[in-house]
Amino acid sequence: MKFTYYGQSCFLLEAAGKKLLFDPFISHNPLAKHIDIKSIEADYILVSHGHGDHVADLVSLAKQTQATVIAMPEITDWVAKQGIEKVHGMNFGKFTFDWGAVRMVPATHSSGLPDGSYGGNPAGFVLELDGKQIYFAGDTGLTIEMKVLADIYNLDYAILPIGGNYTMDVDDALIATKYFDCDKVIGVHYNTFPVIEIDAKVAVDKFEREKKTLLLPEIGETISL
After folding, report:
1. What is the CATH number of the domain that holds 45?
2. Which of 81, 128, 167, 206 has the greatest number of beta carbons closer than 10 A?
3. 83, 13, 8: which is closest to 41 by C-alpha?
4. What pLDDT digit, counting tens, does each position of 75-104 carry?
């Protein structure tokens, strides 16, 4: 399984013969200006909520890639009105595709679309594919509901926001790993704006002291999971 980071909360998972793109926000991110967005391929685009820093490139990339958009019904309705025909609306539940299973799980946040319309509930995803279980929390604060995941899954990796202010910070993310019992974390949603800037070394050291791993790939970097 490969993970490619595109900045903020946007990343690509390559597994089970599919390419899954999450929360596409690239062309409007100054930190990702070196990314050639026209070269990105995807079979599915998964969207956690409707804020601009998660959907700015959603419509253009859905058209470019012909990917199926997986998101709350309010978001899939929004993209359908813009000419995107391949959509799969979900809410807090589980669906099994031919490549693996996806469960939508709650996130503590808000969700409005760029045109001001309601974006449905904010969410995260748990994916089961290629023999691994991956949790992407979306934009969320620390919430006790995360403990339920430990009863359902044996998570291999958690992809967590760590920038604070709008979401969990590094300390909250560490607590979250204890809730859902996962020792390997990929950090996202940090450094894009001044209010979510972090000291990466301090963050990594905090995880190491708890005998956990925090991975912070560079924008454009691909790592193997």
Report:
1. 3.60.15.10
2. 167
3. 13
4. 999 999 999 999 999 999 999 999 999 999
